[in-house]
């Protein structure tokens, strides 16, 4: 790439969206129908408009390409390697989100031909450096979920202890000891029994729980450390 003293004027947004279902962690990928990435799988992303904030751009891009709306997006990291884009210098700001797959119905927007959930460890080759961006964000999630109760965003409001353990196993990529895992959560007092059991299941119905966010916030004020 030929370097110059020209001002960088190419700024984009890319979104990494994680979802969880049936004991597997997924990433949301789109296939672009136009531009340099036409026909290739990519993270949902596009250019930022001059009249919008970064957060507004991230929400607009995600909604227009996948139909995911009202999703809480958090800014993750900026990627700006000199050769990450083929014909000019482009810096991209990455956002990420954790969503409950069952709450959303996907729909490909006008700029993409397909939108699909892929197992996070079976994602196809993607355009530009999107594979590297996804890997970086996944590593960030693997670290953060052990120190913050982020995983509850991926679960339904009411969940079983087995679902909770399967979530951690899917993200961390390892089997966890059942007794030890449940003991850790029991000691933290962050789970509240719903006094209900699963419905319409072929196996023995398990008890349902919910995450007590109010209790977590109180504990944090007292110096509580979340550790899994």
UniProtKB/TrEMBL annotation:
Claim: Signal is one of the keywords in the record: no
Gene Ontology MF, one: hydrolase activity
SUPFAM superfamilies, per the entry: Nudix, Winged helix' DNA-binding domain
Keyword Cell division applies: no
Domain Nudix hydrolase: 12-134
Sequence ranges assigned to domain NrtR DNA-binding winged helix in this UniProt record: 151-211
Keywords recorded for this protein, A-Z: Hydrolase
The species this protein was found in: Arcticibacterium luteifluviistationis
Protein name per Swiss-Prot or TrEMBL: NUDIX hydrolase
Pfam families linked to this entry: NUDIX, WHD_NrtR
Matching Gene3D superfamilies: Nucleoside Triphosphate Pyrophosphohydrolase, Winged helix-like DNA-binding domain superfamily/Winged helix DNA-binding domain
């Amino acid at each position: 790439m030929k370097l110059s003293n020209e001002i960088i004027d190419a700024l984009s947004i890319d979104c990494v969206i994680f979802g969880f279902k049936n004991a597997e962690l997924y990433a949301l990928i789109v296939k672009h129908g136009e531009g340099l990435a036409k026909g290739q799988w990519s993270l949902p992303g596009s250019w930022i408009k001059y009249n919008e904030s970064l957060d507004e751009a991230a929400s607009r891009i995600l909604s227009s390409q996948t139909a995911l709306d009202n999703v809480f997006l958090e800014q993750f990291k900026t990627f700006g390697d000199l050769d990450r884009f083929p014909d000019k210098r482009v810096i991209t700001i990455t956002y990420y989100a954790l969503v409950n797959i069952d709450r959303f119905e996907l729909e490909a927007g006008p700029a993409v031909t397909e939108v699909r959930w892929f197992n996070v460890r079976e994602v196809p080759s993607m355009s530009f450096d999107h594979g590297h961006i996804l890997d970086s964000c996944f590593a960030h999630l693997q670290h953060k979920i052990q120190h913050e109760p982020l995983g509850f965003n991926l679960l339904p409001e009411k969940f079983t202890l087995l679902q909770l353990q399967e979530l951690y196993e899917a993200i961390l990529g390892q089997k966890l000891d059942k007794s030890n895992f449940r003991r850790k959560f029991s000691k933290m007092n962050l789970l509240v029994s719903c006094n209900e059991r699963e419905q319409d299941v072929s196996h023995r119905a398990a008890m349902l729980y919910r995450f007590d966010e109010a209790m977590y916030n109180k504990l944090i004020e007292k110096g509580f450390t979340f550790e899994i």
